[in-house]
Amino acid sequence: MWGGLVLTGPEVKSLRAGAAQLQDAFAAFKDGELYLLNMYIAPYGRAGYVGQEARRPRKVLLKRAELERLRGRLTQKGLTLIPLKLFFSERGWAKVELGLAQGRRQYDKRQAVREREERRNLERLQKRYRA
């Protein structure tokens, strides 16, 4: 599902320049409205005196029925609404694609950490014996 973003002028310019990151970003309800939190948009260099917070909450525009459906789904345990991609519509509006994600279970996290460490050790050994 995707919705529009409420942005300032310099933020749109910065987005068009490709200076945004979705890492660690998520969407949450606040006062009955959906906000995109922790999304980084780099300050636009030519913005002049207008100050801009890089990680401020940004409102997501969705229809009321979609908001209510999402609110119902988010009450389930372990579901989080995350941004998947940012894009501009044909009309030039900034949009964000949102998806419901389920967090990893504790045993999955441990296994992922173990695999990452094994891969690092293997790369370290290969580097040592190649040189």
Topology as a string of helices (H) and strands (E): EHEEEEEHEEH
- What structural category characterises the helix and strand content? alpha+beta
Percentage of residues in DSSP E strands: 25-35%
**Order of the strands making up the biggest sheet:** 3-4-6-1-8-7
CATH class: Mainly Beta
Any idea how many domains? 1
What is the name of the CATH superfamily? Answer: Small protein B
Q: Total number of β-strand segments?
A: 8
CATH architecture: Beta Barrel
Q: Give the terminus-to-terminus CA distance.
A: 50 Å
Count helical runs: 3
Contiguous low-pLDDT stretches (5 residues minimum) are: none
What name does CATH use for the topology?
Answer: Small Protein B, Chain: A
What sort of overall outline do the alpha carbons produce when their principal axes are compared?
A: flat
The largest β sheet comes out as: 6 strands, antiparallel
Quote the average pLDDT: 88
Bin the helical content: 25-40%
Rg measurement, Å: 19 Å
Could you explain the architecture of this structure?
The radius of gyration is 19 Å and the shape is flat. The protein is 34% helix and 31% strand. It has one domain (2-103): Small protein B (Small Protein B, Chain: A, Beta Barrel), CATH 2.40.280. The longest helix is centred in the C-terminal third of the chain and has 25 residues, at 106-130. It contains 3 helices and 8 strands, in the order βαβββββαββα. The strands form 2 sheets. A 6-stranded antiparallel sheet has the order 3-4-6-1-8-7. With 131 residues, it is of the alpha+beta class.
